[in-house]
């Protein structure tokens, strides 16, 4: 679907996985898209090239979301390039699994820095700078419902994201801005696949009644719904997109 407006979306962590699928989908829906990345410039540039080849507008902007100054600069560049910002998709995230007993300080601090502080940094900026009528979509995870062993720190960061989602929705009263979260289940990206033996991947793939792994485009569909006109009455909610796993 192509919307007639020239709305602008920032997608964090859009150099690969779910974020790249979201960036391509929002571009196809008519948004100019900021493809944010942390370290992998070449894949981010490739996503922008795909967007432009399809007739869209995109720009790759490096910013570590855990750095508030870098996030401010990203918003500055986006406003300079495109004239304003309408949609923020907080997709950047990392996951390291360990029991709480085996979680060291580095594991805890890194996941809190990217998943929680990173989301906070962009939400704070967006709450001051998004144009009225805008949309915010945060990526949570269905592990907040599943609560499996070894997901303690990661799930805690995502539970915090869900709490901020509902609170910011209320704080933005009067601006016509919705704030929601999408909580994927197991999805075929590096974050999920890396380091897992094939039998674990096979077992987790069979968990949902739909009996397959989610694909990045499955999640992009849910994000696009919340970022587009059809999702306009959904606000402060977490939508689990996981094939029925929980
Ligand atoms: P990937 O590991 O495939 O991609 C992560 C993306 O985030 C990359 O583009 C990476 O950029 C970027 N990124 C990482 N750290 C930072 C940072 N500090 N600042 C800016 N960008 C950063 O992950 P997924 O696509 O799987 O995950 C996307 C989101 O979905 C995450 O929030 C994740 O928690 C969530 N999720 C994923 C699930 C899954 O099964 N895959 C399930 C539930 C939730 P670069 O390459 O430049 O480092």
Word description of this protein:
With 246 residues, the protein is of the alpha/beta class. The protein has one domain: NAD(P)-binding Rossmann-like Domain (Rossmann fold, 3-Layer(aba) Sandwich). Helix content is 46%, strand content 14%. It is built from nine helices and seven strands. β2, α2 and β3 form a beta-alpha-beta unit. α1 runs parallel beside α2, α3 runs parallel beside α4 and α4 runs parallel beside α6. The two termini are 30 Å apart. The N terminus is likely disordered. NADPH dihydro-nicotinamide-adenine-dinucleotide phosphate (NDP) binds next to α1, β2, α4 and α7. NADPH dihydro-nicotinamide-adenine-dinucleotide phosphate binds next to α1, β2, α4 and α7.
Outline the fold blueprint.
Elements: E1 8-11, H1 17-28, E2 32-37, H2 41-53, E3 58-62, H3 68-82, E4 87-90, H4 105-129, E5 135-139, H5 143-146, H6 152-171, E6 178-184, H7 190-193, H8 198-205, H9 216-227, E7 238-241
Helix pairs in contact: 1-2, 1-9, 3-4, 4-6
Bound molecules: NADPH dihydro-nicotinamide-adenine-dinucleotide phosphate.
Describe what is shown at a glance.
The chain is α/β, with parallel strands linked by helices. It has one domain (8-239): 3-Layer(aba) Sandwich (Rossmann fold), CATH 3.40.50.720.
CA(first)-CA(last) distance: 30 Å
Structural class: alpha/beta
CATH topology: Rossmann fold
Strand/helix succession: EHEHEHEHEHHEHHHE
The pLDDT mean sits at: 97
Give me the CATH superfamily.
NAD(P)-binding Rossmann-like Domain
**Count of beta strands:** 7
CATH class: Alpha Beta
Q: Low-confidence parts lasting 5 or more residues at pLDDT below 50?
A: 1-5
Classify the helix fraction into a percent range.
Answer: 40-55%
Strand content: 5-15%
Largest sheet: 7 strands, parallel
Helix count, DSSP H or I runs of 4 or more residues: 9
Give the CA-based shape. Answer: globular
- The CATH architecture term is 3-Layer(aba) Sandwich
| CA-atom Rg in angstroms | 17 Å
Present as ligands are: NADPH dihydro-nicotinamide-adenine-dinucleotide phosphate
